[in-house]
């Protein structure tokens, strides 16, 4: 399952190209950490990847998938609970009070990863766009290298993409 973020959303969240990768990575880790509350799984049953510009979506994209070959349906459950799951993820990031980096705001068991992501300002920025994770159809090229502006939906729901 995946979600994308448009240039308009990035601009509203004040996420610039310099912190985009970190913001997406923080949102990825935080969402993986929160999914067990919605999909009855262990965080190690889930994998993820985030990219500032995916060649298929032409947008910044976060993927969350079953972490074992053949899977167990966790990504599908994530898709079906996307609104509640990603809203909880956003709230977890937004409520963190750290200012020097900690593993709690992005739910990462790796302190090194957490510190790197937190000190970049990425979690704060990602909290403002994490649950704007719809499948969007956009027009034109934007300053982030992908599609700019655009509107929601237009019947463009793809298999596995989060839709709100």
Structure description:
This is MrfA-like Zn-binding domain-containing protein. Residues 145-164 have a biased composition (Gly residues). Residues 141-164 are annotated as: Disordered. Residues 27-106 form the MrfA-like Zn-binding domain. The chain is α+β, with helices and mostly antiparallel strands and 164 residues long. It has one domain. It contains 7 helices and 5 strands; from the N terminus they run βαααββααααββ. The chain has helices at residues 7-12, 17-34, 36-39, 74-80, 82-95, 111-119, 122-127; strands at 2-4, 46-51, 61-66, 136-137, 151-152. The strands form 2 sheets. A 3-stranded antiparallel beta sheet has the order 1-3-2. It has a two-stranded antiparallel sheet with strand order 4-5.
Would you summarize the structure shown here?
The chain is α+β, with helices and mostly antiparallel strands. The protein has helices at residues 7-12, 17-34, 36-39, 74-80, 82-95, 111-119, 122-127; strands at 2-4, 46-51, 61-66, 136-137, 151-152.
Low-confidence stretches: 127-160
Shape summary: globular
How many structural domains are formed by the residues?
1
Largest sheet: 3 strands, antiparallel
The oligomerization state is: single chain
The helix content is 25-40%
Task: Give the helices and strands as they follow along the chain.
Answer: EHHHEEHHHHEE
GO molecular function, one term: 3'-5' DNA helicase activity
Protein name: MrfA-like Zn-binding domain-containing protein
GO biological process, one term: nucleotide-excision repair
Organism: Streptomyces haneummycinicus
């Amino acid at each position: 399952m995946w979600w994308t973020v448009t240039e308009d959303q990035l601009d509203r969240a004040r996420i610039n190209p310099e912190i985009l990768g970190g913001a997406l990575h923080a949102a990825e880790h935080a969402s993986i950490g929160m999914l067990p509350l919605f999909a009855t799984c262990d965080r190690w049953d889930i994998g993820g990847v985030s990219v500032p510009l995916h060649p298929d979506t032409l947008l910044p994209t976060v993927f969350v998938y079953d972490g074992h070959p053949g899977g167990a349906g966790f990504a599908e459950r994530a898709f079906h609970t996307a609104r509640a799951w990603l809203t909880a993820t956003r709230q977890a990031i937004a409520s963190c009070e750290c200012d020097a980096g900690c593993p709690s705001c992005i739910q990462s068991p790796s302190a090194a990863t957490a510190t790197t992501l937190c000190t970049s300002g990425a979690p704060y920025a990602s909290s403002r766009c994490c649950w704007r994770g719809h499948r969007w159809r956009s027009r034109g090229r934007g300053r982030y290298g992908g599609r700019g502006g655009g509107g929601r939906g237009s019947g463009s729901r793809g298999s596995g993409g989060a839709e709100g």
